[in-house]
Amino acid sequence: MSEPSAAVAAESLTKRYGPTTAVDELDLSIERGDIYGFLGPNGAGKTTTMRIFTGLIEPTGGEARVAGVPCTDRRALVEDIGLMPETPPLYDQLTGREQLQFAADLRNVPWETVADTALSLCASLDLRADLDRRIDGYSKGMGQKLSFVQAVQHDPTVVFLDEPTSGLDPRAAKTLRELITDLADGDTTVFLSTHILPVVEEIADVVGVLHGGQLVAEGSPAELTAAAARDEGDGADLEDAFLALTTDDGTAWA
Ligand SMILES: Nc1ncnc2c1ncn2[C@@H]1O[C@H](COP(=O)(O)OP(=O)(O)OP(=O)(O)O)[C@@H](O)[C@H]1O
């Protein structure tokens, strides 16, 4: 791969489902400690890309690596990554605490080594008092919070977050944004896929816009906004940039 030091890297990454090309010769390189906002319209290929990076599916072509580890080697990858998918992967019959212990077990990490981090994150998210309740009694937002904690409690090199703030109340969403920023300050790379553009505008270091399985633009939120302002005039924001980049007339600023 061209940049071996990158935390997340893809080269000519391709995924086809029958006649549908979900990810199309994607090249990507994300530096360690960056928050990378991954944007794109419905069906652009974001989830497919994240599923390849986290070893859940194999690409049709090209290569993907996280922390230098080929993403097809899921066993080697598991300690380096955390994943918070859009639908929380939780077991209803467990308590919150048991779920977090189970997640640590899956990574062969002793619970004792992650418990302080996990409990402190739960306290920040106002979830600590609910940890001994069964998950089937949790609200949607409580499930989202627990899913976040289990994705990051083992201090992964890269964490993949799919719509992490959806379903959270404004206070919890603000706390989560702060926790994400703290993770990056601690040198964790954050791959953040969301349709909530103000979140990306606020916390992302770099934004990549995917359209039709291809990266059509990449830059800081300010750079993408400035590019939109050249077309739309002053007052343009990331939403204007997104709308201009994801029309089907082929506009691309990459
Ligand atoms: N298992 C699958 N089988 C067939 N086609 C699939 C499968 N998964 C995804 N696709 C197709 O691949 C393309 C990309 O889908 P993907 O879920 O990656 O998009 P997305 O950017 O995450 O969209 P959204 O914002 O709606 O979640 C779509 O055309 C979708 O229909």
Automatic annotation (TrEMBL):
InterPro entries: AAA+_ATPase, ABC_transporter-like_ATP-bd, ABC_Transporter_VariousFunc, P-loop_NTPase. One of its GO terms (molecular function) is ATP binding. Keywords: ATP-binding, Nucleotide-binding, Transport. Residues 8-237 form the ABC transporter domain. PROSITE patterns: ABC_TRANSPORTER_2. The keyword ATP-binding applies. SUPFAM superfamilies: P-loop containing nucleoside triphosphate hydrolases (SSF52540). This is ABC transporter ATP-binding protein.
